Amino acid sequence: MSQTPNMRMSRRGLLRATGGIAATAVLAACGNGGGTGGGSGGGAKGTLTLWASTAFAGDAKAALRTAAQEYGGKQGLTINVEGFPANDLAKKITTALAGGGGPDIVVADVSSIPQFAASKMLVDVTARFKAAQGEFFAGNVAAASFKDAVYAVPYDTSNVALLWNKKLFQQAGIQSPPGTWDELLASAKELTGGGRHGYMLGAQGYGSFLFWPWLWQNGGRILDDAGTKALFNAPEGLEAWNFYAGLHLTHGVVPPTFLGVTQAWDQYIQPFLTEKVAMLAIGDWGLAPIAKGNPGLEYGVASLPKGKESATVLGGNAIGITSACKNVDAAWGFVSWLTSAGQEKVLRDGYQRIPARTDVGNGSMAGLDEAHQIFIQQAASARPRPAVTAWGDIEWQVMANAWDSVIQKKKSPRQALNEAATAATQALSRG
Q1: Statement to judge: residues 83 and 117 lie in one domain
Q2: Distance between CA atoms of 157 and 316, rounded to whole angstroms?
Q3: What residues make up the domain containing 274?
Q4: Could you say which of 61, 172, 180, 414 has the lowest number of CB atoms within 10 Å?
């Protein structure tokens, strides 16, 4: 694939893009292992190259590879699927495209899409997607958009719910999972002791990502409507931040080891998996590691305990066509087929994931176990994070650093949150 002059990014632009995008990708890390190889560029008319994380393309028999072979065989196309560790994927995409190479198609975390779009790395698919847009959850469409244009098709959707250990609850005499913040704190206190703790938190960007539902539940907002000013330090935000941090700082219901949860979701899940923690908030991507690591674990899934209102945060992946693709029509054919009704089996059977389609409740997800049902029910109401180019810096750097300064007792919650809001607003002003 050739690099036209208007597609080439400056070195400064590349550094900004890779820094922000790569940080957000860490939160999507649901798989491990090395990449399967470098990109070929997909220059031949009958060849397309797709890059995804190893969560989707980690082995030779991955469902995405099989789907690509099936479609390619029918269309006379060769679709090469290549996998990379999730925390490296966005940086590799950015670097490759800036250098004139890279894939034709990418499967990327939705939080990366606005930054890809702002850097002109994705094709605007608004017109192509218009007829099918209503078949997808609005939140996922919004997350895959930038400045009123759609740059990727939503693929899977995820949101955050509460996992609770049924055996530990029964032993503590607690009959049901908490439904409110006060109930969560009371239960966590009862469940803390004897080497166990009631609730789990994460450090760095894991902690900042999991804070957003608390903010929304208390009536707070992340940014203003224009996306130019941070609002998360308003009174509603500070109250939620204090409660969130207080689980560790004031009440001691969180294991001290949470301070080391900085690299992967597996670190965050481990204390729950080994029954050292009774509750944690996580998305459906946490279910497979639990099933693998402790298949006999007796646990339930419930909606997050609510504050003034109920809320959860949206995640997932979207599929975009890169600006380096020479055969956009062929690439779009595959993308539209893979995300169409009837192909949910790829996500369901291959990855135990939930498609971002509104028809997931019509029985097509019957193959998923009971633990997934809450996530399916919440899919339509989960809230996306702001679609701004500075989001990676805000979530993984500004807020992550603020969170760490609080849990490490270097700054007060108020000071850290106010400083973070100022830094976030400055990041937004830089575009």
Answers
A1: yes
A2: 4
A3: 159-313+389-429
A4: 61
290, 236: one domain? yes
For residue range 367-414, list pLDDT tens digits in order: 677 888 899 889 888 999 998 989 988 998 999 999 999 999 999 999
With a CB cutoff of 8 Å and minimum separation 6, the contacts of 300 are: 163, 164, 166, 177, 371
Q: What is the DSSP string of 188-250?
A: HHHT-BTTBBS-----HHHHHHTTHHHHHHTT--SB-TTS-SB-TTSHHHHHHHHHHHHHHHT
Here the CATH number for the domain that contains residue 402 is 3.40.190.10
Number of domains in the chain: 2
30: pLDDT strictly greater than 50: no
Q: What is the pLDDT of residue 332?
A: 98
φ, ψ of residue 107 in degrees (nearest 5) = -110, 110
Quick one: 121 and 199 in the same domain?
no
Q: What is the mean pLDDT of residues 14-34?
A: 45
Predicted confidence at residue 368, as pLDDT, reads 73
pTM for the full predicted model? 0.82
- SS3 of residue 334 by DSSP: helix
Q: Are residues 134 and 236 in the same domain?
A: no
312: three-class secondary structure by DSSP: coil
145's enclosing H/E stretch is: strand 145-146
Listed residue (355, 362, 365, 384) closest to 132, CA to CA? 355
Say which residue the tokens 């997607």 belong to.
129
Residue 39 has pLDDT above 90, yes or no: no
Rounded Cα distance, 171 and 193, in Å:
12
Sign of the CA dihedral with 203 first, then 206, 210, and 211 last: positive
Assigned domain for 39 exists: yes
> Do 94 and 182 sit in the same domain of this protein?
no
pLDDT of residue 198: 99
Phi, psi angles (nearest 5°) of residue 133: -55, -40
* Orientation angle between helical segments 235-249 and 181-190, nearest 10 degrees: 10
